[in-house]
Amino acid sequence: MLPIFFSAFILSACCLTKGTCISYDELKELKTEFAINLYQHVSQTENRTNLVISPASVAVSLELLQFGAQGNTFTELQDALGYNIHDQSVQDFLHAVYEGATDSSQGAVVQLACSFFVDTGVQLSPRFAARAGHWANSSLQQTNFTDPNRTTAQIQEWITGNLGGGDVHGMPLESAGSPLSQMALVSTMYFKSTWQKKFSFMDTQMLPFTTEEGSTLKVPTMHHTAEVNYGNCP
């Protein structure tokens, strides 16, 4: 439930959507609905495998794209998010929320980052470049998509530098594109905190674990009994 809760938290407050002021509860419901719909859409192709997504990262990416979109594309992005990023009140609110989310004074570390990798031959609108380069820890970077391996390495390096010192060695990263690609949008979310209710080492149990190949192994598994909130997304 962390992705859904985090999405509701990071985007919850009163802002303008399609020119109408909505309440805190309405916006919270809207963002939770966005997160659930995203999960359901992505999970359709995952065939019941483990799935972890970050709706907050997706929202930041769509906000970034709104700065450069027009016509039907902009309308679709606005409909997906529920708000217009060009509204100054929306920008002011989101800036404050993103800055608050990165405040580690309470012990938890949250870092959102988004980068727009653009082929060196593509000319971007100066207005879009100015906006997108300073939105929610975002950046614009030039690359050469005619060399996909080099572009992949460049993106991998950027990911490593935006994960709060996290280890991404061994993380699979598909080819960033082909010689026909012109841009790639990459986002990350780094989260680090301590357990609110820590697992007791004495409660660790040897339980069965099924590998990807179908074999079953006995592995040490953390164990804790408690009443917790959960959500069910059919």
From TrEMBL:
Q: Which InterPro entries match?
A: Serpin_dom, Serpin_fam, Serpin_sf, Serpin_sf_1, Serpin_sf_2
GO CC terms for this protein? extracellular space
The family database entries (PANTHER family) matched by this protein are listed as: SERINE PROTEASE INHIBITOR, SERPIN, SERPIN E3
Its name, as the record gives it, is Serpin domain-containing protein
Which keywords accompany this UniProt record? Signal
Task: Report domain Serpin positions.
Answer: 31-231
Tell me which positions the record assigns to the signal sequence.
Answer: 1-19
What Pfam families does its record include? Answer: Serpin (PF00079)
MF terms (GO), sorted A to Z:
serine-type endopeptidase inhibitor activity
